[in-house]
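step 4 of 6: structure.
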Amino acid sequence: MKRLGISGAARIFLASLLLVSGLSFTSMAAANELVWGRPLPRNLDPHVASDLPIFFISLNVYDSLYRYEGKSSDIQPWLVQNKTVSDDGKTWLFELRHGVKFHDGHEMTADDVVYSFKRVLALGKSPASAFKGVLRPENVTKTGQYTVQFVLDESYAPFLASLPLVSIVNAQLVQAHVANDDWGQAWLSQHDAGSGAYAFDTSTYAPNSRLDLTRFKDFFLGWADNPAAFDLVRARPVLDPTSRVLALLKGDIDISDEYLPVDQVEKVQQSKLARVIIELPLRILIIRMNNSKPPFDNLHFRRCLSYAFNYDGFIKDVQQGYATRLTSPIPDGLWATPEHISGYGYDLVKAKEECAQAKSEGAPTDRPINVNFVSELPGTRQVAELLQSGAREVGVSLKVVPDTWSHVTASTGSAKTTPDMWVHFVSAYTVDPENWIGQMYGSKFAGTWKASSWYHNQKVDTLLDQARGSLDQEKRKKLYGDAAQEIVSDAADIWVANLKQTQGVSKRVEGLRFTPVGGISELRWAHPSTEGQ
Amino acid sequence: MLRFLIRRVLLLCPVLFGLLVLTFALIRVAPGDPAAAIAGQNTTPEQIEAIRKEYGFDKPLVTQFAIYLGHVAEGNLGTSVYSGLPVIDEIKDRLAATLELTFFGLFIGVVVGVPSGILAALYHNRLPDFLFRSVSIVGVAVASFWLAIMLQLLFSMRLDWLPLGGRLAPGTDAPTTITGLYLVDSLMTGRWDIFVDALKHIVLPAFALSLGSIATLTRFARAGMLETLQKDYITYETAAGFSRHAIILVYALRNSLGGVVTQLGLLFGALIGNAVVVESIFSWPGLGSYSVDAVLNSDYNAILAVSLVIGVIYALINIAVDLMHGLLDPQVAERL
C-alpha cells in the first residue's frame, strides 16, 4: 500500500496526461483557415467602437468610400467611382460603384451611404470626431441612385482622408433592427451589415473570445487577384501577451501582436513557424504635460523636462532599435513631416538651467508630480521610469503611477482631473496631420484625450485652421510645419519616438499587405504559403 | 434541516444587499468617470454630460443605488459598455466556463489532496509524510500565474502534449448547450471528440488553479486523520482486531474530513479569485477574464454584476458545505 500510494498517484496523473494528449488531434488551423490571435474590438459596430482592434471588422466585414491601401499614405477610391469638388472646397459629390452587394444580397446604393454618415454623426462616437464642426447630418444627401453629396460648413482638407473612417452599413437591415431609437446599436454590436470581403454569422460570436469570418464570394472586387485567399478566418483572441507569443511560436495562431514585446522579436524571428513583419506605422510615443497646471504652465519647466529625457537610451536600450527619434508632433513618413525641426536632446546641463529659470520665476518645481503610465500599453512604464530617472538628476521628483486606458482617458475631460503627465501612443486613424498635430494641439479639441496637454496658443490655432481650410498640400505642409515649430518651441509635450511595428505572423500565411491605418488587418490579400508550411 | 435551509437562504438577502452596497460604493468613490467611460474616446465634454444625464449619474448616489437595486430586482443588470450587450447574457455564457474550470480544479484538489493528506498521516514523520508536507508548502507558496506559464512551457511548448489555451481548439464547435459545461454536454450528447478536446484544454488551467487547493486539502486531511487516529475508539477497534484498512476507510476517514469540507467552501472562493489570473493566461472565456476586461474598461455594470454573481455562488456553496457537515456528522445534523 505504501508503494501504491505514492508512485501510484504519480502514475495515474502521468497516465491521464498521456491519455489526454494521446487522444489529441492537432489544434493548428486547416490549410484554408487563418487563426487571428489578437483581441477583438469592444463592440462589432464600426460606428461605435473606437479601439484599434475595430480595423479587423471595418477592413474585412465592411467597405468605405475610400480606403488606405499599401504603405503609401495616399488613399484610394473604394466604393467611389468619381468625385467632384467645388472650387471653395465645401461641396463634394461622389459617384458610387454599381453592383456592390451587401452580405444579404441587397445592392448598395446612395441611401446606404447617406444613412451610414447620418448614423455616425448621430451616435457621435469616435468616427464622428473627424467631422466635428464641419459636417451636419442634413448636409449629407442623395442626389441620385448612386450619387451622394456632402456640403461642408467650411472648406476642410482632411475631409477626404477621414472618409475611410466611416464604414458603409446596410441601411435597410440596420433600420429593421432599431429598438428604442438606438440606431440599431444593440443589434449591430453583434451582427453583420457589411459588404466587405468577409462575412460573419453571429452564432459564432462570443465577445473577445471567438468569431468566425467566411469569405464573401460576391465581394465587389472579386477574388481574381487572390484566388487562394483564406476561406475561413477564425478569431480566437489570446488574451495574455506572453501566451500570445507562445501560441504564435507553437503554430496555434497565425496573427499575433502588432507590437511584439521587443525582447520577443528575436525569438520569433528565429522560429521555424513564425516571422516578424517590421514596418513604420505612423505611431508615435509621447509624454503629455498638463500645460494648465503649475509648474507645467511655466515654459522653462516644460523645457527642463524635455531636456531631461534620455531619448537615445530609450530607442537603443529599451526599444532595441525598433523606433526612431520623434522631434515634433508630426510622425516621420508623412507628407507633412517637418525636416527642419531638431527638437530637444538629452542635455542635463540645459535641463538644470531651465529648471533654475523656472524656479526663479516662481514655478513650484518642488511639488510632487505624478507621471501616469497605462498598464495595458507595453513600454509606457519604461518611458515613465526613464523620465523619472532623468528628472531626479535635475532635482525634480516624479512619482510613477500605474493607470488604465479607460480611466486615464476619462480623466482628461477636464484640465483639473487630467494627470500632471501621462505616457501614451497616438496611432494613425487617418493619414493626415490633423490626426496628430491638429487634434492634439487645436484648442477646439480640449477635453479629449488627444488634446490632454491643454495647450492653448492663438497663433497655433490660426495656423491649424488655415491648414485645415486649404486644399493645396504644399501650402498645408508649410502651415503645419510652422505650427509644429511653434508648439516645439513652447515644449508643449515631450515627443519621444516613432514606433516601428513588429508584427508577429505565421510563416504559413503570405500576401499580407501593410498600411499605416490598420496595419495588416485587411485579410483579403492573404493566402496560405505556397511552400506548404 | 429544512428550517436550517430556509434560515440560511433568508440570511442570503442581507448578505447580498451588503455586498451590493459595498461594491456600488467602492466603484463610485474610485477615481474615474462612468459617463466618460461609456462615451468612449474622442468625445466632447458636452457628449459626456448628455450621457451622465441619460444614465442618471448626475443624481445623488443614494438615488442611483435605489435605481440600480430596482433594476437588479427585475433581473436587469444593465448593459456592458464593453460590448453593448446585456450583462446578464454575457455572464450566463461565461459563468458556465468558470464553474467548469473551478469545479474541475476543485475535483483535482480533492482527488489529489485528500489521499495525499491521508497517506501523509498514515506515514506520520516518515519519508512520505515529509514529501507530502514539502509539496503542500510549495503548493501554497507558488503563485498561480507563474505555475500557469511554467505548465504552458513544459506541456504545450516543449512536450506538445496539451494546448496552450482556450476552451476548445479553433476548429472544434461547442457542444449543444444543455448545462453549459462542455465536458458534461459533450458526454450527454455523445460527442466523444469534443469531450477529449475540452478535457485537453481544461487540464492545464485546472491544475494551475488547483495546486493551492491540493496543498491546503493535503494539510487539512493529514491533520484531521492524525487527530482521529489518536481517538480512543480507534485504539479500541485496533485492540478488538479490526483490520487496519477497515479502521481507516470505514471509521477514521469519515470523521477526519470535517476540516476538509469546511475548507472546500473557502477554497471555492480562492479558486474564483485565482481564476482571474489563470483565465487570462489560458484565454479561458470565463468570469475571471471577463472581470479583468470589465475593470480595464471601467465597465461599471459588468463589475457590479460579476461581484453579485460570485457573491451568490459563494454563499450557496457555503450553505452546501454546512449541509455536507450535517451528512458527515449526525451531531451536527441535529443542531441544524
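step 5 of 6: annotate
 - Residues 192-229 of chain B form the longest helix (38 residues).
 - Chain B touches chain A through 66 residues (CB under 8 Å).
step 6 of 6: archive
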